Amino acid sequence: KLEAMLTRLQRENWLKLNWYRTGAKEPQSNLLPYIVEVIAQDKPGILFQLADFFDRQNITIENLQSLRYRAMQTGADMFSAQITIGVPATMHIAALRDDFLEFCDHLNLDAIMDPMKF
Q: Can you give the pTM of this predicted structure?
């Protein structure tokens, strides 16, 4: 039913939607969970660039939540994302963090990357 509704929504509202069915995921005990939080002035392509950065590092994105909002004080269009990533245990974390923060500085993104706390 959902897939039929998505097709109708796409056709009636001139949207382009992509969806696919997923199966159960194999547990990967060699991945360390990290949380990435990003805030920036909204501009086209931010989410793609973030996902592309992690993909190029062979880091999996386990969960991603993003939103766009208007800043109360200035009225600027803002972007916010919280991303849970799986970092391979063999990866040098300090080097990854440095590369990520340099990447964010280049794009004028305010970001942090911390280990997930349970």
A: 0.77
